[in-house]
Specification:
The chain is built from 9 helices and 14 strands. By secondary structure, it is α/β, with parallel strands linked by helices.
């Protein structure tokens, strides 16, 4: 299926009223995405709601199997179960799905794409293109230009993940629990399993009793290998939730095949697409969620030699990126742009 000769496609957002859906709408508008019609689709409880787009009020429609007639691109952000339920209907209608869920990410027949890394993979799609895990995107986009010049053979990742990764309800729970904490009131968490205000806890996905890694950590590890096209990278990840609304942070240490210096890394990242260096040692100013929120670029700093590796092949750094933008909506819209390029 090719859309390259289609100048103004019909686009649908599935899950339009969710946290990522709202950002998809904004990205399409801010990037002046060429489309002839935009359809907003969501569950029955959201049907009838109005959302602004390019100076007009669009009405949200209930998602059904008939929703995809005439739709060329479907931006899905409503969870794996919804994607799996409606993928066949979309395929029958000729809709190309850009899916933000984990439903098809590790399917060998489905390209898993970060446009700054592997845009060529889009051409192999058979109706579905997977948007990677948000932590994976934010972690590895700055690493790709380094990997191309000096292969990364080993990678250790520790993520500090914002509420937005668990959706709009988790963001609201963070707000409400913080108010309650400051007011000295009790608050029973409903969305996440542990108190969120002024707390940090292991990512709330199931832990594999054999490996000891949770689902989020396993996604980051497996998806990195698939996106890089390098199954032999040694990767370990630890993923935690922190009380931040929408920007993930990542502490990374990577080992290359050959020695590499911090200045070389700065030189490579200085011209890397989608990346901005924030590495002010004099003023102790480095990537922070407050600066990354609302920004398209991934912020990279704390670039330093890993002193535990005397070979000079390892670098440590710190990253911050907006989970709702580059970690989700922006990456999906960039994929859609590539479909038309």
């Amino acid at each position: 299926m090719t859309l390259k000769k289609l100048s103004n496609p019909v686009v649908a957002i599935v899950g339009a009223t969710g946290a990522v859906g709202v950002e998809l709408l904004r990205c399409l508008e801010q990037r002046s995405f060429p489309l002839s019609e935009l359809r907003l689709l969501a569950s029955a409880r959201s049907a009838g709601r109005k959302m602004a787009f390019r100076g007009k009020q669009l009405q949200v429609e209930e998602l059904t199997e008939d929703s995809f007639k005439g739709v060329h691109i479907g931006l899905f952000s409503a969870g794996s179960a919804t994607t799996q339920r409606f993928a066949a209907a979309a395929a029958r209608a000729g809709t190309v799905i850009v899916d933000n869920s984990s439903a098809y990410r590790m399917d060998p027949a489905v390209p898993l794409v970060v446009p700054e890394i592997n845009p060529e993979a889009i051409a192999s799609h058979k109706g579905i293109i997977a948007n990677p895990n948000c932590s994976a995107i934010i972690s590895i986009t700055p690493l790709w230009p380094i990997h191309r010049r000096n292969r990364i053979k080993r990678l250790q990742i520790a993520t500090y993940q914002a509420a937005s990764g668990a959706g709009a309800a988790a963001m609201e729970e963070l707000r409400e629990s913080t108010r309650a904490y400051l007011d000295g009131k009790q608050f029973a968490p409903k969305v996440l399993p542990h108190p969120y205000a002024f707390n940090v806890f292991s990512h709330n996905t199931a832990v594999d009793p054999v490996t000891g890694y949770n689902d989020e950590e396993t996604k980051v590890m497996n998806e990195t290998r698939k996106i890089f096209g390098d199954p032999d990278i040694a990767i370990s990840a630890t993923c935690v939730r922190v009380p931040v609304l929408r920007a993930h942070c990542v502490a990374l240490t990577f080992e290359c095949e050959r020695p590499i210096t911090p200045d070389e890394v700065r030189g490579i990242l200085g011209s890397a697409p989608g990346v901005r260096i924030v590495d002010d040692i004099e003023h102790n100013y480095f990537p922070m969620p407050v600066d990354a929120s609302g920004q398209d670029d991934i912020l990279v700093g704390r670039i330093r030699r890993d002193l535990s590796d005397p070979s000079g092949r390892s670098i440590a750094l710190f990253i911050a990126g907006d989970q709702l933008l580059k970690g989700a909506a922006l990456n999906a819209v960039q994929i859609a742009e590539q479909l038309l390029a």
